[in-house]
Design a protein that fits this description.
alpha+beta; 8-stranded mixed β-sheet
Length: 529
């Protein structure tokens, strides 16, 4: 545990992946940040999230951490890119999806593929990254219990579980302390939404030799469709450790009959050691507000969604990035008074969409597909399996191939983006289209840490004029600006515009084919001034 400080610029409540990502975003920008986390060590008992999606991997690349995570992942990204539906691991294969969850090579569309990795591996790596950043302090063994806001600061009360209580003064507070968030309670916010009725029972188990007895080859997930064990299984590593979710199994039944469920799902009589259990029920909920004065909510403290599609943690990292660069800009003096207000207006629609799509994914589960004919021999069994294959492909494709949600979600109504002209549709507010530069390079590697002016059109003098105007305006406004010169005629169609102003999170703030008459006005809009 690091020493408890008395003051900081930003205090982050919660040292899970979202809180740590917030700290990395802030610390890399030179912002003093303290993360308060009750757990001394990261538990391996519950792997939770296994899908780190393309967008999160792109942020990890920006932080210099993508390769480090891949090196530590027990399953290499090329090990498998499939999801299989089957009656059991040793039974009939019913359907198969390939190139799932952003694991396939996307060419120019993205610079980093997704990665299957247990959450605890990501979390441990992020702890190390925070420790490596001089402005950041991770304090374990303490919890945020409450806070008091004043005009220019927040006084945060933390306790160590042994009766000791201290107060830390911060300029801003980020509540990334999960579904039982003390920060959310302190600002009077509450969840709004629904909870599913069906229970689920997660398990981590060890079964040596099981992988070699799977009839369907490598896959990152196996969805089992049988009456005795409807659910999902997948390998956590190649050494016999597996995770599973038993649909419809309550806590008591799971604790009493977990091994029987695993044997029915695998279809193999094999020795099983259950390492941990995790009963849960899906929740579709949003906090009724995500900020109050100098206090903000991120991740599960702000929103909860069913895990189907693997969007929960990744949405939280998106929160961390959006809020992190904005807090840093304000604390560094170039962010305007409306910049932090844009956090809610930008992220709330994304959170709404993720919940809606994850809820839709939950409507087609193995419990809804079970039929006694699926394991029958002959014509009747073949017809039943063909029918369920068609239904699975129709209802589950969007869940496993959700790049539109991962990459093409934009901030249409953001107050800090400049609406594009009608002849330049569909780009402003959205992620900058990716371009590979050379064998291993990426356009994103060339962007500055703050605002970047990307010049594409070399056919006119507009780009040169724009660069001069923006440089002058940025210097006068004290706004850090990098100019990225990519003037190649063939890229004009790719980007849709010849000149683009790009934010720290790689979203486009403004785009045009001509230099603006008032570049300072564009900068002021992008920085919330």
């Amino acid at each position: 545990m690091n020493e408890l400080p008395v003051a900081t610029q930003v205090l982050v409540a919660g040292g899970g992946p979202v809180g740590l990502a917030t700290a990395v975003e802030l610390g890399r920008r030179g912002i003093d940040c303290v993360v308060i986390e009750p757990r001394e060590v990261v538990s391996h008992a519950r792997p939770r999230c296994k899908t780190v999606n393309i967008r999160t991997m792109e942020h990890l690349r920006r932080w210099g951490l993508a390769d480090r995570l891949r090196d530590r992942a027990p399953l290499a990204v090329d090990w498998s890119q499939d999801i299989v539906f089957c009656t059991s691991l040793a039974g009939y294969e019913l359907s198969r999806f390939t190139g799932v969850l952003g694991l396939a090579d996307g060419g120019d569309r993205y610079t980093e593929r997704g990665q299957q990795v247990p959450q605890f591996v990501l979390e441990e790596m992020l702890r190390e990254a925070v420790d490596d950043l001089h402005p950041c302090t991770l304090v374990t063994g303490w919890s945020v219990e409450g806070l008091t806001q004043k005009p220019d600061e927040v006084q945060v009360t933390v306790t160590d579980g042994n009766g000791r209580s201290e107060v830390i003064t911060a300029e801003y507070v980020v509540g990334a302390d999960g579904s039982r968030s003390a920060v959310r309670e302190a600002i009077g916010a509450s969840y709004v939404g629904e909870t599913a009725l069906r229970p689920n029972f997660g398990m981590v188990f060890r079964a040596a030799g099981l992988r070699e007895r799977v009839a369907h080859g490598p896959a990152v997930q196996y969805w089992t469709v049988n009456a005795d064990a409807p659910g999902i299984l997948g390998p956590l590593d190649l050494d016999g450790t597996w995770w599973c979710v038993a649909f419809g199994l309550d806590r008591e039944t799971g604790l009493a009959h977990g091994r029987e469920w695993i044997r029915a799902a695998t279809g193999v009589d094999i020795d099983v050691e259950i390492l941990s259990t995790d009963p849960w029920t899906a929740r579709m909920q949003l906090a009724d507000r995500v900020s109050d004065g100098r206090v903000f909510l991120a991740g599960d403290a702000a929103h909860l969604n069913p895990p189907f599609g693997g969007h929960g943690l990744n949405t939280g990292v998106g929160d961390a990035v959006d809020l992190g660069w904005k807090l840093a800009a304000v604390l560094d003096g170039w962010g305007g008074p409306e910049l932090l207000d844009s956090y809610a207006s930008e992220r709330r629609p994304v959170q709404d969409r993720v919940i809606a799509e994850a809820t839709a994914n939950m409507k087609a589960l193995p419990t809804d597909l079970v039929s006694p004919e699926l394991e029958a021999y002959g014509w009747a069994g073949g017809r039943a399996r063909a029918a369920v294959d068609s239904r699975i492909q129709e209802t589950k494709h969007a869940e496993f191939h959700a790049l539109d949600l991962v990459l093409d979600t934009g901030y249409d109504d953001s107050p800090i983006v400049v609406p594009a002209a009608e002849e330049l549709p569909g780009r402003v507010g959205y992620r900058l289209p990716h371009v590979r530069l050379g064998a291993d390079g990426s356009l994103y590697d060339e962007l500055g840490p703050d605002l970047s002016l990307v010049l594409v059109d070399g056919r006119t003098a507009a780009a040169t004029e724009a660069a001069a105007g923006f440089r002058t305006a940025a210097e006068r406004r004290g706004v850090p600006l990098a100019v990225v010169d990519l003037r190649r005629p063939e890229l004009q169609d790719h980007f849709g515009s010849g000149i683009l102003l790009v934010r720290p999170d790689q979203h486009i703030a403004w785009a045009a084919d001509e230099a603006p008459a008032e570049p300072w006005s564009v900068l002021d809009r992008a920085r919330g001034a």
